[in-house]
Queue: 2 jobs
Job 1
Amino acid sequence: MPKAGFISLGCPKNLVDSEVMMGILARNGYEFTPRAEEAEVLIVNTCSFIAPAQKESIDTILEMAEYKTFGAAKKLIVAGCLVERYRQQIIEQIPEVDAVIGTGELENILAAVEGQLRFDAGAAASLPSYLYHDLTPRILSTPQHAAYIKIAEGCDHPCTFCIIPQLRGKFRSRHFESVVREAESLAAAGVREVTLIGQDTTSYGEDLGLRDGLPLLLERLADVEGLQWVRFLYCYPNRVTQRLLDTIAAHPRLAKYMDVPLQHASRSVLARMKRGSNGDAFLQLLRRIRKTIPGVALRTSFIVGFPGETDADFRELCDFVKAAEFDWMGVFPYSDVDNASSFALDEKVDEETIKDRQNRLMEIQQKISGRKLWRFRGARATALVEGPSRDTPLVWEARLEGMAPDIDGKLYLNDIEVAQTDRQECLSYKTARPGDVVTVEITETHEYDLVGRVVEILDVPRPTALHSAVTGPVQRVSTGAVLRVLA
Ligand code: SF4
C-alpha cells in the first residue's frame, strides 16, 4: 500500500484532526513514514490562526511540494485552517497541490489521496460542522501514555482578534457517552493521561442542553480505571463556575490544573477585544480557584500590542501579572489578521513596541516562575514518566500534575533507577519506563524547569497488550508517524 507522510501544524485540536485523517487512511491500508522523501502521498494539515502561522503553513507546503520532484511523492494534499481561509488561492497559486480539505471535511481524505475529490469552491461558503466520535478511526501520534480528546469544536465567542469561528465554525459539543467511551478505550490501550480540548471547553454541553456539562463529564471521566490524570485546557474566564472548581477539588484523578487564557487585564483593552471583565474580577476568580483547589497550577495567555493598548494599559497588565503569580504563562504579540474585526480598529501599536512589551512581560513572569518552582526544592512528588529527552541526551523527561504536555515546563530526570530489596534481602534495580507513574525527589529548580530523580516506581496496573484491549478503532503506530508536529 502507498506510504503517506503527515505534517501537523498548529494546535492540539489540529493534531487530533491529523490523527483522524491518519486513522481513515490506515483503515484503508495506508502505511505511514516519518521520511518525507519516502512518502508517495504528503498531507500538510495547516494552521492559519495568525500571520506567522499562515506563513509557516505556506512555507511547509512549498517545502513538501519539492518532494514531488526530488522524492517519491505523487500527491500533495493540503488540509486544515489555511484551506478555510485560502481554499481557491491554494489551488490556483500552488499547482503542486492536488486537493484541499477544510477543517470540516476530514472524511474526504481518502477521496483526496485517491484523486477522486473534485475541487468544490462552494465548500468555502458553508461553515464547518463536522465532529469526530468514538467510532471514528484515529491513529494516536502522542507518546503512548498521553492522548488528547477533542470534546467540542468551533466557537461562538466574538473576540475581535480571533478568526477561529470562521475557520472552525459554530460551537458544537461531542456527545457525552461518545467522549466517555473514547476515554475508556484510550485507558484500556495504556493511556495514563487524557487532555480534553476544544476552543472553549467550559461551554461543553450547552448546545446539547446540558447544564454544567463539563463538571458532569469530568465526574464521569474521574471514574475511568487506568487513567492517572484527566486534564482540560482552554477555559473561558466567565464560564469558570464554582461547580466546576468543586468537581476538580473532589476527584483525585482530575488534575489540579487550570488553563484560563485571559488575553489582557485592562478593562478598556478587554472591551475592545469584546471579552469584557477586568483585572480585579480576574484576581477574584484566581483567589476562588486557589481557595477551592489547594496547590492548583494556573496557566494563562495574554496578547500584547492590541490596537489602542496604551502605556497605562500595559502597566496595568504588568501589575496584574505580578499580583496573579501564574505558574505558566504565554505572551503573544498581536497579529493584525485582515479578516479579524480588530483589523478595522484604529490606534495600531508599532511592531517594536509590541516586541518590547512581549519581552518585558515575559521577564516579569520568568522571575515569578523561578520563585514558584523554588518551593519544589527537595520535595517529593508524583510524576508521569515521558521517556528519553529530545532536548538533551542522557536525561529523561517527566511531568508533574501541574505540567500540561507540550506547553509548560518540564521535569528532567537524571536518575531513573530505583534500588529495591526482595524478601530475601537481595538488592536489585528497577528502571522506570515511559508511562510509569513514579515518585520523584526534586534536586534542582530553574526558571521554567525542574530536575529530579526517581525514588519509587508506583505499581499502577498496566493493560497487558495494546491492541487486544482496544475496543474502539483507536490505533497506535510508532510516535514517528507524524512527520512533524509544530505547535
Ligand atoms: S474564545 Fe478563543 S477561539 Fe473563541 S473567539 Fe475567543 S479567542 Fe477565538
Note: Residues 351-374 form the longest helix (24 residues).
Job 2
Amino acid sequence: MRGGLAAFLALLLFLGAGQTAAEDPPILVRRAPTEGARDPGASLWKSISPTRIPLKGQDVAPPYGGGAVAAVDVRAIHDGKVAIFLLEWADPTKDAAGAEIGSFGDAGAVMFPLVADDPPGPHMGHRYLGDRNAVVNIWRYRADTDAAEDLNAAGIGTLLTQDRQDVSARGQHDGRGWRIAFWRRLRTDDEWDAQFGPGLRTWLNVVVWDGSRGERAGQKSVSDRWHRVIFEAR
Ligand code: HEM
C-alpha cells in the first residue's frame, strides 16, 4: 500500500478513535419508581450504582482549557414514562454567580445523539447542518439560574436553545460537590429532542464547568467519547 494512502488511513483511524471505547461500562437506566427522585439528595439514589466517567480539559478546539473536575458519576432511572439522570461530581466551591463581569457559574450538561444508532462525533456533533445524524440534544444545568436548558448543536459554534423546553433539573451543592438531577418524559413530540424508551440503546457524553476556575464555553472538563446508555426494558 503506497506510503501516502497508509498514512491517510492511519489518520482516519486516529480521528475515529475515541468515538466509543468497548471497555467503558454502559450506563444502565434502571427501571424504578421515579417519585422523590427529582430531588438530587434523595436516599433512593444510593441504591442505584453509578457509572464513573473520567473527564479531562478540553484540548480539541480553541478556546482550549478546563479540566478542574476529574470525573463525574452518572446514575439513571426510568419508570416507563419519565427518565431521570443524576450527575454527581466533586467541586468544593459553589459558584452560583454568573452575572458579574469576570465571574462564572458552575454548570453541568449531558448530550445525546438524535439518531442513536449512527451517532455524530462526541464533540457536540459535527457541522453538516440539516443532516439529522449530525445533531445532538444537550441538557445543561446552570447554577446561576438554578434551571435546565434544552439545547441542540451540530458542531462547535452552532449551539441553539430550543423553542420548546422539555427538560427540567434541580441542583444541590453539599459543600463537597454538586448533584444535578435532570428529568424529562421518555418521549416528546419535539423533533429536536433525543427520544427514549424501555430497552433503547443510545449514547451519552458529559461536561462540567467549574466557575471558580474561570471555566466557561469551550473551557471545561469533558469526556472525549460517547458512553453507551441502555434503558432497562422490563
Ligand atoms: C471534546 C469535546 C468538545 C469540544 C471540543 C467542545 C468545544 C466547545 C467550544 C469551542 C465551545 C464555545 C463555542 C460554542 O459555543 O460552540 C463550546 C461551548 C459549549 N459546549 Fe462544548 N465542546 C465539547 C463537548 C461538549 C459536550 C459533550 C457538551 C454537552 C454535554 C458540550 C456543551 C457545550 C455548551 C452547552 C456550550 C455553550 C457554553 C456557553 O455558552 O457558555 N460541549 N464547546
Note: Residues 71 and 226 are 15 Å apart (CA to CA).
